[in-house]
Specification:
The chain has about 350 residues and is mainly alpha-helical. It contains twelve helices and six strands. Strand 3 and strand 4 form a beta hairpin. Keywords: Membrane, Transmembrane, Transmembrane helix.
């Protein structure tokens, strides 16, 4: 009987995970707890993904174009952006530890405004006309421009969630760093979209839509060439500065940092020095600082009327400096962590 009891005791010990294993598993999940993701934002993300896939599939079969690009290029970009960003926010809000109801309400506002935003973009594309900078006096365009009046709420809600995260710790230090830096970068990316209106070419002009009708436009996204385009899929200008580059880089900073956090958690299973969340948090902060430098460089490049694909020496130096700062900081962090563990 005693021998059987000992065997059962050993079996129970084998089935019970060690504290280190539990901590590492929690690290792989990025946060502890299992609260449901924010449903309206999940729905927005799924809708965005569906629109992106549909638009990408429609491009080869619909030969209509606007300024040389497929009418479905913009819905594809908007759908992808909302897919990635809405799901990131849904994940974030599910793990807030304070002011959860406030965060849920703010997230719902973002989801509603975001859905309306890319719905009108899809509607304009399906009609073969311009959504942005269009001043035509048609019922469809009036509805589109009215919906765009609420777009600043996307920036304000993101900034508000960012403020909420400053007063709480979500998950471990690494996850908290991801969320705070990610929201800061995303807010800057959204701000870049509004900055376009103050630095881009604002000339009034007339362009043909997909049906050959003359459409009056006012304003633009390009510096030096208001209607610049050319890059595959992105449509970013190859003939002048384009702040949509900065908008994209900043907006998706959170997803980049989430990916880095996942990678570090996976590496922590085999690297003991990475199991300290302070080390992972420091690496994420240095990477975010370098990412911020790249974002700032693309803004500086665009306002000088320089295409993203044609950087001059000053721009290349700025890009290199941003990367080197991040690499130097991460290298020093890794060296200290390995020395401490050894």
């Amino acid at each position: 009987m005693r021998r059987d009891g000992n065997l059962r005791s050993v079996g129970n010990m084998a089935e019970t995970p060690s504290a280190g294993t539990v901590d590492r598993a929690a690290g792989l999940m990025l946060t502890q707890g299992g609260r449901r993701w924010h449903r309206p934002l999940v729905a927005l993300g799924i809708a965005g993904g569906a629109v992106a896939l549909f638009s990408l599939a429609a491009i080869p079969f619909d030969d209509r174009t606007l300024l040389g690009d497929s009418v479905w290029l913009k819905p594809f970009k908007f759908g992808f952006a909302f897919f990635a960003y809405a799901l990131s926010l849904a994940w974030l809000l599910a793990h807030m530890t304070r002011r959860r109801r406030t965060g849920w309400a703010i997230g719902t506002v973002f989801a509603v405004v975001g859905l309306v935003d890319f719905t009108v973009v899809v509607a304009a594309a399906a009609a073969g006309t311009y959504s942005h900078f269009n001043t035509a006096d048609t019922p469809l365009n009036q509805a589109v421009q009215f919906a765009f009046d609420f777009v600043p709420l996307l920036f304000l809600t993101t900034a508000a969630i960012g403020v909420l995260t400053l007063f709480q710790r979500i998950g471990d230090r690494a996850v908290t760093a991801v969320i705070r830096w990610g929201l800061a970068l995303s807010s800057l990316g959204m701000a870049a979209a509004f900055f376009i209106l103050s630095v881009a070419e604002q000339s009034d002009r007339v362009r043909s839509d997909a049906d050959g009708d003359a459409i009056p436009l006012s304003g633009g996204h390009g510096v030096g060439d208001p209607d610049g385009n050319g890059m595959l899929l992105t449509g970013w200008s190859t003939t002048g500065g384009d702040l949509r580059v900065s908008h994209f880089i900043g907006l998706h900073g959170m997803q980049v940092l989430i990916g880095l956090a996942v990678l570090l958690s996976l590496l922590a299973l085999r690297r003991a020095w990475l199991r300290d969340d302070r080390v992972r948090a420091a690496i994420i902060r240095w990477a975010a600082l370098g990412y911020l430098g790249i974002f700032a460089t693309t803004v500086w490049q665009a306002v000088r009327g320089q295409a993203f694909t044609a950087p001059d020496n000053a721009t290349l130096i700025a890009f290199a400096a941003s990367v080197l700062v991040a690499v130097a900081g991460i290298t020093a962090t890794v060296h200290r962590a390995r020395a401490t563990t050894d």
